[in-house]
C-alpha cells in the first residue's frame, strides 16, 4: 500500500478532490490523505468541490487539516498542486525532498515531456554555471564601472543562445500548476475536477 498526501493552500478545494478521486479509483493500492499549507483545522470542503464529486457518485466526508510532521512522515509520496506549494512545503520539511513533487511534474514526466524536462534541467544548469562565473567576476575587488559594464555585456552576449534555448524549452512544457478555483464559479471547480480526474488516472496507470 502506497501512502499519498495531497497538499494545496487551504485543504478545501483541490487537495480534497484529489484525495477523493484517488480513494475512489485506486483504493486497493493507495491510502490517500490531504492537507493545506495554510489550512484551518476542521473546515468542510467547498460546496462546489463536493458537488463536482457527488454528481459523479463520489461521496466524500472531509475536514481540513494543516500539513504536519506526522503527515509528511506518513506519506510515501507527497503531491502539491503548484510549484509554489512544493517550495513552501520543502522549506518547512526539507527532509522530504525525495518524495515531494507537483502532481503534474510527477505524472507527466514520461515520454516526450520527460525528454524536454531533462533537456530543460541541463540547459538551466549550464546557464546557471555561466551566471555564477560572471557573478564571481563582478565581485572582484577594485573593478571600475566600465569594467563592470563590460562584464555584464559579455554575459549577455555569451548567454544569448542559452536564454533563447531556455525560452524554447519552457514553451514546450505544459503549465505545472493546477489552478485554484477558490472564489470562482461552479464551472471553475468542474474544470479543476476534470483536470484532477485525468491526472489521478494517469498516476494510477504510471504506478501499474
From TrEMBL:
UniProt KW Hydrolase keyword: yes
MF annotations from Gene Ontology: protein tyrosine phosphatase activity
Protein name: Protein-tyrosine phosphatase
Residue ranges occupied by any Phosphotyrosine protein phosphatase I domain in the UniProt entry: 2-130
Keyword Nucleus assigned: no
Organism: Scopulibacillus darangshiensis
Keywords: Hydrolase, Protein phosphatase
Domain of life from the UniProt record: Bacteria
Pfam families: LMWPc (PF01451)
Annotated catalytic residues: 8, 14
InterPro entries: LMW_PTPase, Ptyr_pPase, Ptyr_pPase_sf, Tyr_phospatase_low_mol_wt
